[in-house]
Amino acid sequence: MTIKEVEARTGLSRSNVRYYEKEELIAPSRNERNGYRDYSEKDVENIKKIAYLRTLGISIEDIRDVISEKKALYEVIGHQNEILKDQILEFKKAKAMCEKMLNEESLSYEKLQVERYTEELQDYWNENRPVFRQDSVSFLYIWGSPLIWAAITVLCLLVGILSYPKLPAKIPVQWSNGEATSLADKKWIFIYPVVCIVIRYLLKPFIYVKLQMKKYYGEIITEYLTNYLCFIALSAEVFSVLFVFQVVRSIAAVLAVDTAVLLGLLAVGLIKMDLRGKGM
């Protein structure tokens, strides 16, 4: 059956169905004549099961483990039940606090005294630590700030100024297998801060247009990628200097580490933003 028929049978939108397929929770076959997805009755039943478990708060990862029989459904439901018990307890505490505040004769922000509603303020903060972890400024915002771009650009300039007197007349600008394949005048070391400026003021608008995402995410991720590219420029500059003095030989390892760390932190930042958006 077609995805339109799946929508009618399940009551779910095609974006939900596509998402479950993207997460490899379902794997519909392909129609050999036209190449379109051909959903089976089993796919429809699986989609309904997956959607139902999601309404219980079960994570995609846990659902995937249940489907692949890495975890038993009973175990996953039991774990989620304990999580919900804790959440209900927290909600009851918050509800009782709200009711206590509503019983005040005059309730306003100006007159609000937090200590009246908590016995030990520090203990109360500690009990609500998960909330503050969500409220804290994530790496994604910090890294995407103009201040970080300015810091990277200044560092590029400083590295050039400090290393210039000690550099040979010609420095490597391209490498292969630990060997320099192309040389340029040592003034080339100052191209890196210029690259940072070009990235921010010429390349950044192009990146934003190409992302074609929601405005909220598009702006943040554009800033992130802009600063990331500048960071790559800084890494390449530092590598050039270290290569000249035979401290390191392979830029691939340097860039691989840069990419792994920054992509990992981007993922953490996006997950945190999603959790904040869901009010978790």
From TrEMBL:
Pfam families cross-referenced by the UniProt entry: DUF1648, MerR_1
HTH merR-type domain span: 1-69
Domain of life (superkingdom): Bacteria
SUPFAM superfamilies: Putative DNA-binding domain (SSF46955)
Signal peptide: none
Positions of transmembrane segments: 139-167, 187-203, 224-245, 251-271
InterPro entries tied to this protein: DNA-bd_dom_put_sf, DUF1648, MerR-type_HTH_dom, MerR_fam
Alphabetic keyword roster: DNA-binding, Membrane, Repressor, Transcription, Transcription regulation, Transmembrane, Transmembrane helix
One GO molecular-function entry: DNA binding
Keyword DNA-binding part of the UniProt annotation: yes
Protein name: MerR family transcriptional regulator
Biological source species: Candidatus Choladousia intestinavium
